[in-house]
Amino acid sequence: SRSINLAVIPGDGIGQEVVAQGLKVLRAVLPQDVKLETREFDFGARRYHATGETLTDADVEALKQHDAILLGAIGDPSVPSGVLERGFLLKLRFLFDHYVNLRPSRLLPGVATPLAGQPEIDFIVVREGTEGPYTGNGGSIRTGTPHEVATEVSVNTAFGVERVVRDAFARAQARPRKKLTLVHKNNVLAYAGHLWTNIFNKVAKEFPDVTTDYLHVDAATIFLVTDPARFDVIVTDNLFGDIITDLAAAVSGGIGVAASGNINPSGAFPSMFEPVHGSAPDIAGQGKADPSATILSVALLLRHLGYDAEAARIEAAVSEDLAARGDSVRTTDEIGDALAVRVAG
Amino acid sequence: SRSINLAVIPGDGIGQEVVAQGLKVLRAVLPQDVKLETREFDFGARRYHATGETLTDADVEALKQHDAILLGAIGDPSVPSGVLERGFLLKLRFLFDHYVNLRPSRLLPGVATPLAGQPEIDFIVVREGTEGPYTGNGGSIRTGTPHEVATEVSVNTAFGVERVVRDAFARAQARPRKKLTLVHKNNVLAYAGHLWTNIFNKVAKEFPDVTTDYLHVDAATIFLVTDPARFDVIVTDNLFGDIITDLAAAVSGGIGVAASGNINPSGAFPSMFEPVHGSAPDIAGQGKADPSATILSVALLLRHLGYDAEAARIEAAVSEDLAARGDSVRTTDEIGDALAVRVAG
Ligand SMILES: CC(C)[C@H](C(=O)O)[C@@H](O)C(=O)O
Ligand SMILES: CC(C)[C@H](C(=O)O)[C@@H](O)C(=O)O
User: Fold this and answer.
1) CB contact set of A334 (below 8 Å; sequence gap of 6+)
2) Ligand nearest to the backbone CA of B98
3) Cα–Cα distance between B92 and B174 in angstroms, integer?
4) Min Cα separation A173/chain B (Å)
5) What is the CATH number of domain B113-252?
6) pLDDT in tens, A63-116
7) What is the tens place of the pLDDT at every residue in A300-315?
8) Can you identify the CATH homologous superfamily of domain B1-98+260-345?
9) Which of A1, A131, A244, B161 could, after both became Cys, cross-link A160 (CB 3.0–4.6 A)?
10) Global confidence as pTM
11) A246 belongs to the catalytic site
């Protein structure tokens, strides 16, 4: 018999509320014979305030014992900016070698977009998750004086770039349009850009049926608002991926429906799935948060674990639910209930 | 009697065509008593192919003899990516210490935007122009092997950040809404982010009437498409500024109308004014390019040199022209003629 051993991290703010709905839909969609075991972890602002801890060695060992991780949101204004982000979120991405940060963007029927003319949007971004300017490789001298110099080092390796580029080519090849766009800034960031471009061109030879394309990151933001239909799969560096996926989420229905996976394709460590949105403390505890992004993240989680049919059922349910919702204002719980019914039906 | 000694760099592709219109409008708007002297420089792809040069020491000395520089566009597919960008454009920004990269975004009446609902857009971005990841401070080892490591170093100094932040506060203070937003990624790029945030908060105390705000760059891209009206003045680092100003141009009427100034406020070196768009080789020589962005860059140039009334006349003319243009397709030359008539009238 099959089983899923899931680590659950509700986290801060609306994280609690949306994760509850994610689990509700997960339970509703799983076949009877699949045994779901969950263990909840208390990472986030409360734990930090109580103990000063963000993620201990023991936590990491405990998380490792799971097949996957479902995360709500981490972050609170009561904690200095960066402490939880670097001490928990990024730390985990690096420790668990989540080198594929997968972020699909699909504008579903009936969903509002800030763009005029309701364009076709259906692409995925494969953002590198373990290198680039995110390595924490910086420093400062004469800190706090008029002579301070602060640096940040973007670290890029052939090993790190090739594995994520290869993953993106495989994803592009599996899609009908088979098109992959590299986004970088190789005219300015010459060393990193050269590495990315060379490896991209080299790996392209192994995927002759995939059409390739290159855009500078600044130009990519233009096309994301003027012609998002041109994108099928995008592969890009950690920081550029961070920036363009927020923009992509905004144009394809907002962060209320943007899902993401922090994936270690080798399976050496559990992968982590989370909505792109944050903890939204301003609306926390009010039942106002849209759990769709978390529920779509559960679909990515299921697909990662090989439950393709169940993942597709969730995606179809969210799509139908959004198309049918009309103008009614629903609570977090009501949306979760409606989706649980749809996936079970 | 007054005079303007202008260096003119038409450059590549449509650069030639749009600069001709910029000069036409400049001549039309200047009062009789102002003597305009221009010297044309042949930088760009042709010069590079002919001589291998992008910008020599002698060129730099010659450019220094001018009050300002008007640039069309530099870049051509026949030249490897980055050669002209780094060998000319960025080299000049660094040599002439163009630390204020000024990029206004205004959605003018009658101008199409990809955003639904024709939002109010009227903000300026003050992009740092001489530091950050643009310093060319990177390298690679084991280049071209499976063990390559490539780095890019973002260099940020208290001196460099403070002067541009101060400039942005002064610009915000001079505008009716008096609001300044710092855009960075201080939760991840901790050292540079700390420097920027600290200096921003310190300088803010000297401008108590300016409302301040902070956004991570990823969140800023969301607001640029969902609520661009929230922005008045933005100050940001060189790379973030590059990215968000292309997006800003896209939402506020496209790069056909996006102007920019590479400014050295001290006047120690001539400032350079250029459209945000590139050389667009695909439409070069066909009279299809919109010269409005270049003409608006001439307005920024005039304001920089103290010709405020003339700058305002150009801006009003472009605004009226766009509002009145209807559906007619006009050539580059026709738009330039129409604007020359309006500013002279
Ligand atoms: C919270 C932050 C560290 C994170 C990132 O920059 O990666 C977030 O913006 C994201 O995109 O997941
Ligand atoms: C051409 C390139 C070097 C330049 C930049 O990155 O600054 C351009 O994109 C710009 O915004 O002026």
Assistant:
1) none
2) 2
3) 29
4) 24
5) 3.40.718.10
6) 999 999 999 999 999 999 899 999 999 999 999 999 999 999 999 988 999 999
7) 999 999 999 999 999 9
8) Isopropylmalate Dehydrogenase (3.40.718.10)
9) A131
10) 0.97
11) yes
